[in-house]
Amino acid sequence: MRGFIDLHCHWIAGVDDGAPSEEEGVAMLLALHQAGFDRVVATPHMRVGMFDNDRATLVAAYERMTASLRGTSGLPEVGLGCEHYFDDIVYQRLRAGEGLPYPGERAVLLEFYGVDFPPVVVERLFDLRRGRLLPVIAHPERYRYLWGKPEALERLVDAGMATLLDAAALVGKYGREPQRAAEMLLDHGLYHAACSDAHRPADVADVARGMDRIVDLFGEEELDFLFREGPRAILEGKLPE
Ligand SMILES: [Fe+2]
Q1: How many beta carbons lie within 10 A of that of residue 207, not counting itself?
Q2: Does 241 fall in a domain?
Q3: Ligand 1 centre from 154 Cα, in Å?
Q4: What global pTM score does this model have?
């Protein structure tokens, strides 16, 4: 199967904990293409105090990196977004148009503290949604708050937020609890799409195993939904049906 779209990947070198070198970034893209991805959106971190990137530095890094892709064949199409750590500062940046939504500017990738989802965070998600920007919740299976509590995520999904599974969670990359949570959230139909969240070329093997696991548990149709239909809808600012 092909035509997959990866909405969460750290193939841009030198800006955070993603690809350590441009060569490794290129190797990640080649490996993802081999795994069936025809489009891979770079989502480097914007996290104040840890990865102090802003829109301008990330756009510059993306341009530098895409220049180094020229002449290499067997690559997927690429694009630029950002994994926004959803604190006060990054929220204000998004409101001021200083964030980095997905190409087309209809959806935006967000990660959270994960121990709780205080009411103010939920209100801010609604604010973005009202502002015609679809919030995409990165790897909900990793947030302790949601373990054993699918109804908390269900409320956000019912309110129109999108969710993105990290496929490697299904093969235990992050431990037993996130693996269990990923299976449970899949069972409850609470994911709109899945991704690689790869940081190194070697991570792609876990992603491919996670994709096999999805086929084993839920069939090829689910794989197609999570990696093709879902991401395509999200890029249009819609939730897949
Ligand atoms: Fe990530």
Answers
A1: 27
A2: no
A3: 22
A4: 0.97
DSSP conformational letter for 193: E
Give residue 83 CA to ligand 1 midpoint distance, Å: 6
Q: Indicate which CATH number applies to the domain containing 35.
A: 3.20.20.140
Identity of the amino acid at 21 = S
Nearest in space to 177 (alpha carbons), one of 222, 221, 147: 147
- Cα of 104 from ligand 1 centre, angstroms: 20
Specify which residues 37 forms β-bridges with: 4
Tell me the CA–centroid distance for residue 1 and ligand 1, in Å. Answer: 24
Query: What distance in angstroms lies between residue 187's CA and the mean position of ligand 1's atoms?
Result: 23
- Our count of domains for the chain comes to 1
Q: Which of 201, 196, 202 is nearest to 214 (CA)?
A: 196
The alpha carbon of 130 and the centre of ligand 1 are apart by a number of angstroms equal to 25
**If you measure from the C-alpha of residue 9 to the centroid of ligand 1, how many angstroms do you get, rounded to a whole number?**
6
pLDDT digits (tens, 9 = 90+) for 101-122: 999 999 999 999 888 888 899 9
Q: How many A from CA of 216 to the centre of ligand 1?
A: 25
Q: Is residue 240 situated within a structural domain?
A: no
Residue whose tokens read 């509590």: 149
| pLDDT at 148 exceeding the cut of 80 | no
Domain hosting residue 162, numbered range? 4-235
